[in-house]
Amino acid sequence: EGVAVQEYTALKLRVKEWAETAKTKVEGLIPDGGEVYFVPATLRPETMYGQTCCFVGPNITYGIYEAVKGKEYYFISDRAARNMAYQSIMPSWGVYPKVAELLGSDVVGTLVHAPLSVQKDGVRILPMDSVKASKGTGVVTSVPSDSPDDYATMLDLVKKADYYKIKKEWADLPLLPIIETPAYGNLTAKFLVESMKINSPKDAKQLAEAKDLAYKEGFYKGKMCYGEFTGKSVEEAKPLVRQQLIDAGEAFAYAE
Ligand code: A2H
């Protein structure tokens, strides 16, 4: 890791309905009136319209931490909770009360409300093997139109739904064109994964290259083609969408 600070947008995906295993483990631990949120860290807030699911690492241990006393509880990695406790995100400095501990696999199938997403009824928590416990919050929201990693994982989940013990329709959702770029059209991730012949979420080297290309083309040449900032450049729209989410109480700044 270098010394540069990464400024993430931490998005709040409210739990609407727990998966069975998670329900048993969480039962009685969250007070009435308390809400649990999955909190993915993203560098691309302007793409949040296209969220189709949210990823956790199936073998990663997560906690549910009390962030607003009796009211807001965040499902994140222990490492992220500690960082948040020193960024005035938790109620008192340096303190991050843990109310439950779960494995990523426990929460697969949970239904959450994803702010801004066109999936108004909510999206599912799904497994992604390449999620790193050591980055962000260990939770990654999926935008398969614009993230090659997310697109490759979605294809794999759809293809092997039984193996992953998920319902195919939880992963198999339409792609939303959000950003138009001169080189890759309006579904950048699909274009790159197909043209680079990436066949699996395990093609790490090629995916890293695709991610680089997608990010640069999107940021410097991309134009919004969905949402209230349609017609604006990605560079202009990014901080506007971010601020809108923060003002609505649906996101907060998180750095590491
Ligand atoms: B991005 P950086 Cl549309 N493990 O959000 C693996 N990946 C993680 C992660 C973790 N623990 N935490 C965050 N990420 C992903 C949206 C997106 C992202 C789009 C396009 C590209 C993109 C939707 N997924 O990332 O290493 C998150 O996915 C490519 C730069 O800190 C987050 O932003 O630079 C990004 O990686 C942070 O990566």
Assess the beta-strand content as a share of residues: 15-25%
Structural class: alpha+beta
Please describe the biggest sheet, giving its number of strands, its sense, and whether it closes into a barrel. 9 strands, mixed
Rounded to the nearest angstrom, the distance between the terminal CA atoms is 10 Å
CATH superfamily label = Valyl/Leucyl/Isoleucyl-tRNA synthetase, editing domain
Widest beta sheet: strand line-up? 8-6-7-3-2-9-10-5-11
In angstroms, what is the radius of gyration?
18 Å
**Which CATH first-tier class would you pick?**
Alpha Beta
Q: Give the bound compounds.
A: ligand A2H
Count of DSSP H/I helices: 8
Give the overall average pLDDT.
97
CATH topology heading: Isoleucyl-tRNA Synthetase, domain 2
CATH architecture: Alpha-Beta Complex
Q: Output the helix-strand order.
A: EEHEEEEEHEHEEEHHEHHEHE
Proportion of helical residues: 25-40%
Low-confidence spans: pLDDT under 50, at least 5 residues? Answer: none
* Number of DSSP-assigned strands: 14
Name the overall outline: globular
Q: Kindly give the count of domains.
A: 1
Which helices and strands, and how do they pair?
Layout: E1 7-11, E2 13-17, H1 20-26, E3 35-38, E4 41-42, E5 53-56, E6 61-68, E7 72-76, H2 78-85, E8 98-103, H3 104-107, E9 111-113, E10 123-127, E11 139-142, H4 148-159, H5 168-171, E12 179-180, H6 188-195, H7 204-221, E13 223-224, H8 234-247, E14 251-255
Parallel strand pairs: 3-7, 5-10
Antiparallel strand pairs: 1-4, 1-14, 2-3, 2-9, 5-11, 6-7, 6-8, 9-10, 12-13
Helix pairs in contact: 4-6, 6-7
The structure holds ligand A2H.
